[in-house]
Amino acid sequence: MLDVRRLRLLRELAHLGTIAAVADALAFSPSAVSQQLSVLEREAGVPLLERTGRRVALTPAGRNLVRHTEAVLELLERADAELAHARSGLAGPLRIGAYPSAVRALVPAALAELASRHPELEAMVSEVDPAGVAAALRAGELDLALVHEYDLVPGEPEEGITLTGPVFAEPMYLAARTAGALADHRHSPWISAPPGTLCHELTRRACQAAGFSPRIRHRVDDFAAQLALVAAGQGVALVPHLGTGHCPPNVALTRLPIHRRTRTAFRAGAAAHPAVAAFAAALYAAVPAELRAA
């Protein structure tokens, strides 16, 4: 009988690419991961990995086993959801991931609503960039998370992760000392989130669509700080609605035909879990009516 814990290691290797990354994600030593994968190969009776120097790749049999592993883990999530429905009341930890502007603007109200309905449920919130959500969900560090995408930067599907339809959509704004269009700032310095984030990619693609490449001077992953830099004459920035709550008076916000859309993400099979559904309902209640997705 194949061991589910070892199958999970193989699944993570397929997603993360290296044994070191799997060890880091799941709090193992690299040698322990290698040892467990070797045991899994003996259990399977066929080679699952191809080793070339320091690199490891999955064989066709290994890739096929990962496909079955995704199905097995989804069934286990569904079983856990059914058991949760059989218990009386919701209790215990619920680990929630969210990006910073949602943590500040929406999550407190959602948690208050959740606590009023399910006082024994212990919500635990962690700030996480959407790029890191899938790995955190697969590793069991989170039970669900809020993720966002932009019109110009759609989210990429992740095996083993389910995304809901948009919960709400925010307009994006050009923040500058004076109102204007994107094309008016082809020679301006720009303020953006660090490379590797969806926000950085949005700035790059939006400017390219306007006919130029942005000259990014400041890399700051906080919208309030970006607005403060704009107010100080340090450049211009793209800011979503939730990030404009403390806009300095000398900053003009020009609405753009671009939206940021927020979805909830969780492990495949967990959609019916009552704690996941309870938080989703509390979040929807916290979203201003004008932002709610139809």
Automatic annotation (TrEMBL):
PROSITE patterns in UniProt: HTH_LYSR
Occurrences of domain HTH lysR-type (ranges): 2-59
GO cellular component, one term: protein-DNA complex
A Pfam entry, by short name: LysR_substrate
UniProt keywords, alphabetically: DNA-binding, Transcription, Transcription regulation
GO molecular-function term, one example from the UniProt record: DNA binding
Stored Gene3D superfamilies: Periplasmic binding protein-like II (3.40.190.10), Winged helix-like DNA-binding domain superfamily/Winged helix DNA-binding domain (1.10.10.10)
Record-linked InterPro entries: LysR_HTH_N, LysR_subst-bd, WH-like_DNA-bd_sf, WH_DNA-bd_sf
The protein's name: LysR family transcriptional regulator
Source lineage: Bacteria, Bacillati, Actinomycetota, Actinomycetes, Kitasatosporales
